[in-house]
Amino acid sequence: MTGIESERWFARAQAVLPGGVSSPVRAFGGVGGTPLVIAGARGATIVDVDGNEYLDFVGSWGPLILGHAHPKVLEAIEAAGRRGTSYGAPSRPEIELAELVVASYPGIEQVRFVSSGTEAVMSAVRLARGATGRDLIVKFSGCYHGHVDHLLVAAGSGLATFGQPSSRGVPDSFAAATRVVPLDDDGALTRVFAADGPRIAAVIIEPVPANNGLLLQRPEFLVALRALCDKHGTLLIFDEVISGFRLGPGGAAAHYGVTPDLATFGKVIGGGMPVGAFAGPRALMRHLAPEGGVYQAGTLSGNPVAMTAGLATLRVMAAEDGWNRLAELGHYFGQMLAAALSGSTVPSALASLSSMFWFALHAAEPPRAAERIDSRAAAVYARVFHALLARGIALAPSTYEIGFLSLAHSRVDVDRLAAALGEALGDPTLARLA
Fold first, then answer.
1. Considering only CA atoms, which of 319, 415, 372 is closest in space to residue 213?
2. In angstroms, rounded to a whole number, what is the distance separating the alpha carbons of residues 146 and 122?
3. At what angle do helices 71-83 and 304-319 cross, to 10 degrees?
């Protein structure tokens, strides 16, 4: 139950922030109730303004791979801030982080920093269009790429169809330049290329779809996508805003052995500070201004404090064998949580990959496409979410959002979640929810 101080602060927020929040999912619309207003966080724990502590599996929606307020990241941020918070000019941390990103990820030679994942995707799509001279973009239903007009679209009635605006304020003409294909559907993918191949500038996909559940794809699907793009002269963009530098230094590209033409990043590479990036081979990146005719700019792009936080985070991960440690913890997590789900009064399955996880409710096995998510899951998840919150455990306030492990989590934390989830899902009344 939300405390009095959180309720009071959220009432103030509603007067001055639309819906009381700066990003919609934070409003608890998917689970009901009043959001927690956070006073601080450290390690794997967040504390609200009422002084209540929660074991946190949200991790600021993915950036905090080391946990909250890691001492080495804080030290680096404080030192950077003393040198100045913004220069509007090149800086050493920007160049060093670019070198590290380029050295880590397959197939890229240059990177351009921006301030958010949305900005990174928007710029990558513009670059793809400018480099190919084509207009059409293909995306997949169930993949989210930020609130970019051309990509904020939903599928129509067909399996490979014109995009339709999924937000007011997006012109039909913008959405018409986007084709939407279901995930895990080889036939639909083949048909969209057969119909529009010579006009398709790029296909963009989350290689690890993680914004509408964790819809883990068959490696063969990504391999087939790469081959179709090559055949039709289409650029393949991997949106690795979530998966980049979380699965490992090479992201999903290295994990699956499929190299995209362009990749977008965010979250982990900023160490908790606002950041985004897009990257590719020099032959493509040379189309960007000031060398080429594709314009992109940003006052705070390459911000020295954000670059320093990202550098510190990636250096700690490398020095402390962080990715292997997270993979080991993720394996333990899978074992313990699968056991907890087995006693659920509704069919429940765990989708997990390394330090990312998602509970697929009303599902015998994790779905690979958004269209296969059972609509009844939302009501069940809302009950489970609040049951866990009452036990001092914070998950994302939406059945479609995933959870994250960090180096600050331990096996004891995993055991605590497994026990609490087992109790919550064992509630016999869940089976009666529509």
1. 372
2. 8
3. 150
Taking alpha carbons only, the member of 39, 42, 116 closest to residue 73 is 42
pLDDT of residue 1: 63
In whole angstroms, what is the distance from residue 348 CA to residue 361 CA? 5
State the average pLDDT for the chain: 94
| Cis ω before 106 (30° cut-off from 0) | no
Q: Is the dihedral of CA 309, 404, 225, 152 positive or negative?
A: negative
In the predicted structure, residue 157 carries a pLDDT above the cut 70: no
Give 7: exposed, middle or buried? Use CB within 10 Å, 0-12, 13-18, 19+: middle
Provide the β-strand partners of residue 202: 137, 235
- For residues 24, 26, 27, 31, the Cα torsion angle rounded to the nearest 10 degrees is 110
Residue with tokens 């992109």: 296
Write down the pLDDT at residue 169: 78
What are the backbone dihedrals phi and psi of residue 27, each rounded to the nearest 5 degrees, phi first?
-80, 0
Among all residues, which ones are annotated catalytic?
144, 239, 267
Query: Count of CB atoms within 10 A of residue 217's CB?
Result: 20
Full-model pTM = 0.95
d(CA 202, CA 69): 38
- CA 321 – CA 169 distance, rounded (Å): 46
The residues facing 359 across adjacent strands are: 350
Give the span between the Cα atoms of 296 and 135, in whole angstroms.
Answer: 18
**Residue that has been written with the tokens 């699956």 in this structure:** 256
* C-alpha distance from residue 253 to each of 47, 54, 131, 249, 360 (Å): 36, 34, 22, 10, 25
Residue type, 93: P
DSSP characters over 220-238: HHHHHHHHHHHHHTPEEEE
Task: Copy the structure tokens of residue 24.
Answer: 């919609």
The one-letter code for the residue type at 29 is G
